[in-house]
Amino acid sequence: MRTIDIVFICLLCTTWSNWVSASEDEYRLIQDLRTNYDPIERPVRNHSEPIHVNLRILLQQLVDVKNQVLTLVLWTQYTWNDYKMHWDPNEYGNITNIQLPHDFLWKPDILLFNSADEHFDASFPVNFVVSSNGDVLLAPPGIVKVSCELSMTWFPFDEQVCFIKYGSWTYTGSKLDLHIDDTGLSERHKMDLMYYVPNGEFELLG
Questions:
Q1: Residue 36 and residue 40: Cα distance in Å, rounded?
Q2: How far lies 13's CA from each of 6, 7, 94, in Å?
Q3: Which stretches within the chain are classed as H helix?
Q4: What is the reported pLDDT for 79?
Q5: Furthest C-alpha separation in the chain
Q6: pLDDT digit string, tens, across residues 134-191
Q7: What's the CA gap between 75 and 143, in Å, rounded?
Q8: Residue 16 in 3-state DSSP?
Q9: Average pLDDT across the chain, whole number
Q10: Cβ proximity of 190 and 180 under 8 Å
Q11: DSSP run (H or E) holding 18
């Protein structure tokens, strides 16, 4: 019985020791990343050059079409590189990526220009995922409503074309260069349909 108690205590101490060490490394990394960082400053070495931002849209569901408004459930994945977010994992307990609060870093002010939502920006605030090489991922989910001219003359045998227009609200192209990330997608689709749930009323053509 004593042996079991000793083993249990040793395991508990080892686990606690590892947790404290990891916590200290993460705390130190966060403090170092925060040093001399201003989230309102574009993360570029040369301020005459644009920050390159990639946007990937993962469509989950086409919910409804009503009153010239298309409702979609989707994720938007924004990626860019922040040169001030580099660190050597060997110096911080082999931490290769970290989650940071949504107000910790600079982020692009990209909005859905043809939004029909009363709140305009319907995305949910989420944490950044930052890698040691400075790559930043921001992937807010959202239920978006898009203004769309729809003709139901030949319903349900017609085809509808609806545009989703994303862009920076205040930055010009010389300050923020936005690209659609269609890596691995067919030429027909510019949205990632990996998690798409088909709608029984509409067939998604592209």
A1: 12
A2: 10, 10, 21
A3: 2-34
A4: 98
A5: 82
A6: 999 999 988 888 887 766 665 656 677 778 889 999 999 999 999 989 888 877 777 8
A7: 9
A8: helix
A9: 82
A10: yes
A11: helix 2-34
Residue-level pLDDT at 200:
65
Judge whether residue 106 has pLDDT over 90.
Answer: yes
CB 97 within 8 A of CB 87: no
Q: What is the pLDDT of residue 121?
A: 65
Q: Given the DSSP bridges, would you call strands 166-168 and 110-112 parallel, antiparallel or unpaired? A: antiparallel
Report CA-CA distances (Å) from 95 to 20, 83, 92, 147, 187.
14, 17, 6, 44, 37
Instruction: Classify 34 as helix, strand or coil.
Output: helix
Instruction: Return the residue matching tokens 């898009």.
Output: 146
**Please, is 145 exposed, middle or buried when counting C-beta atoms within 10 Å of its C-beta (0-12, 13-18, 19+)?**
buried
Domain boundaries, the chain: 36-180
Architecture in CATH of 36-180: Distorted Sandwich (2.70)
Question: Which tokens belong to 204?
Answer: 């998604």
